[in-house]
Design a protein that fits this description.
It is elongated and about 80 Å long. It contains three helices and no strands. The chain is an all-alpha fold and 100 residues long.
Length: 100
């Protein structure tokens, strides 16, 4: 039997390490993003969104905010752009063959 044929089980300590790392990094990014809203050096909204993305698998609140933002961006992205209207033509600009 091939040991690599079945699904691989992840080591529990490694899973816990990545969970703690992503929660810590997400929290730090959110705090830096909040500071970035007031400091001109940091990109505040970008860091907040990155922190929410890291926290969303672990936090219901972060997941709800990310879902809300995705629906808002999709609605705004898919909204129809008004078609460009062509100016109306006067009598003198009509094609003479059109009336025949």
């Amino acid at each position: 039997m091939n040991p690599g044929a079945g699904p691989r089980k992840k080591h529990p300590k490694l899973v816990l390490f990545w969970k703690i790392l992503s929660i810590s990094a997400g929290s730090i990014l959110i705090l830096l993003g909040i500071a970035g809203l007031f400091l001109p050096i940091l990109q505040g909204w970008l860091m907040i969104l990155a922190g929410l993305a890291l926290l969303s698998p672990h936090s219901k609140c972060a997941h709800a905010i990310m879902t809300w933002l995705k629906t808002k961006l999709r609605i705004r992205h898919r909204s129809p752009v008004p078609a460009r209207q062509e100016p109306e033509r006067g009598i003198e600009s009509r094609d003479p063959k059109e009336g025949m």
